[in-house]
Amino acid sequence: MAPASGTPGARSQVPLVDYLALEPEPHLVAHQCTQCGAHFFDRRNACASCSGTGFRDVDVATTGEVTAFTIVSLAAPGIPVPFVAAVVDCDGTTVKGNVINTPPDPDHVKVGMKVRLATQVVGTDRAGTDAIGFGFEPLEGARP
Ligand SMILES: [Zn+2]
After folding, report:
1. Chain centroid to CA 115: how far?
2. Cα angle at 68 between 139 and 29, to 5 degrees?
3. What is the pTM of this model?
């Protein structure tokens, strides 16, 4: 018999966004238009490219390449700055996310650099449930 998930006493984790799946390994899930193949992360009633209304869930590649980024040095109170907001091409799917686990400066973040999906705890509620967010970390020189 398979062990039940959610062992009592274990720390539970919930993804911050509904398109982040944590099992079996963290990855993003996109809604793919069944008519033209376009990918969307938010829920859609119709495809923005072809107006098709059929969607299926597809796993997005966990590695990609930074196609654009900006170093954010001013943000709402409580949000640590600077941080790197980036657009990452994950094998054809455009993902917006922060570049993490590297210094937020132009010496460490470049357009064209290879990155991989990484998760981080972004908050914990009173019941001890961790909210898990995602970002991208450099593939080379990444922490083991
Ligand atoms: Zn479509």
Report:
1. 12
2. 65
3. 0.84
